[in-house]
Amino acid sequence: MSWSKLKQQLEGFLSPALNGRVEYRAPGYRYLPDKSGICYISVDKKNVLNMSDKTNPIRWYQTELEIKNDPDIQIPITSDDIEAVRQATKGPVPEDRLIVMARSRKSTEHAKELMSAQAALTKSNFIVVANKFLTTPIEDSLESKDMVLNILALLDRRVGKKRILSMSEMMQLKHPVVQYFYELRRGK
């Protein structure tokens, strides 16, 4: 599908509250051999989805350690997580230490997921993900680990205000760019 047709379809699914504010852009010199095409999602004429831009309002992580040390990321620990650590240690470990170990294990997994999610977002990758978004149910896009699918689903008019408001806990574990679009959709 051509870029203009894809853009038209994506913008057709935009929430009415975001019409005119959110735009999909693809400035590109796609066929230069040393440059990959880039795709942006811009809000109020500012490019938001661009990792390499230093003036970007969204935080992009450089290392997994940076993610693990980010105080804004709060990872919930379940009793199943603690039990898994207890099984792995095979010995008497104090309960508070088990909680610390479970949180560390879960934050490492979360950091790896975020790092892979923010890997190179080129125009061709965006086009593949956008086509996938147009052919999959909205629930699958919301629950996906792919942050571009999450963003497209959050901007979609098929996701109502009540549903958006009920997703706040799930959004705490998402990448800051997904959280940004979540807050935008909430109207904050």
Average pLDDT: 79
Largest sheet strand order? 1-2-3
Approximate strand percentage: 5-15%
The largest pleated sheet is described as: 3 strands, antiparallel
Annotation field: number of helices: 10
Total strands: the figure is 3
Q: Order of SSEs, N→C?
A: HEEEHHHHHHHHH
Helix coverage percent of residues? 40-55%
Oligomer: single chain
Sum up the overall morphology in one term.
elongated
The poorly predicted ranges are: none
Counting helices, strands and paired strands, the structural category is: mainly alpha
Cα-atom Rg, whole angstroms?
19 Å
Kindly report how far apart the N and C termini lie: 34 Å
InterPro entries: SF0329-like
Pfam families: SF0329 (PF25753)
Task: Describe what you observe in this structure.
This protein has 188 residues and is mainly alpha-helical. 52% of the residues lie in helices and 5% in strands. A 3-stranded antiparallel sheet has the order 1-2-3. The longest helix has 23 residues. The chain is elongated and about 60 Å long. The relative contact order is 0.15.
Provide key terms for this protein.
single chain, 188 residues, mainly alpha, 3-stranded antiparallel sheet, 52% helix, elongated, SF0329-like
Brief overview, please?
Pfam families: SF0329 (PF25753). The chain is mainly α.
Give the arrangement of secondary structure elements:
Blueprint: H1 3-12, E1 22-25, E2 40-43, E3 46-47, H2 64-68, H3 79-89, H4 95-117, H5 123-135, H6 138-143, H7 147-154, H8 161-166, H9 168-171, H10 176-186
Antiparallel strand pairs: 1-2, 2-3
